[in-house]
Design brief:
The protein has a domain of about 40 residues. Helix content is about 60%, strand content about 10%. With about 80 residues, the chain is mainly α. It has a two-stranded antiparallel sheet with strand order 1-2. The protein contains two helices and two strands; from the N terminus they run H-E-E-H.
Length: about 80
């Protein structure tokens, strides 16, 4: 269980970083034209806006999983 928690955190961190680079328009992706030639295409405005919409959702999910994995104190009353 603990190993799974450690694997989830870097993955969520990586997703957040990729979304941030897309939202800022900093990363170019390969695209192909009608002749099959490859060229670099920066994210369109709609892709950037979608990445900006997804960022808070990813961050909220990261905070939620961190809160769930904290240890809880259970009081057992043995009478």
């Amino acid at each position: 269980m603990q190993q799974q928690e450690q694997n989830q955190d870097p993955m969520m961190e990586r997703i957040a970083e990729e979304l941030m680079t897309i939202a800022m328009g900093e990363k170019a992706y390969p695209e192909y034209d009608k002749n099959g030639e490859e060229y670099l295409q920066y994210p369109t405005l709609s892709h950037r806006m979608k990445a900006m919409e997804m960022l808070p959702k990813i961050q909220a999910q990261r905070q939620c999983t961190n809160a769930q994995h904290k240890r809880r104190v259970v009081v057992v009353d043995d009478v």
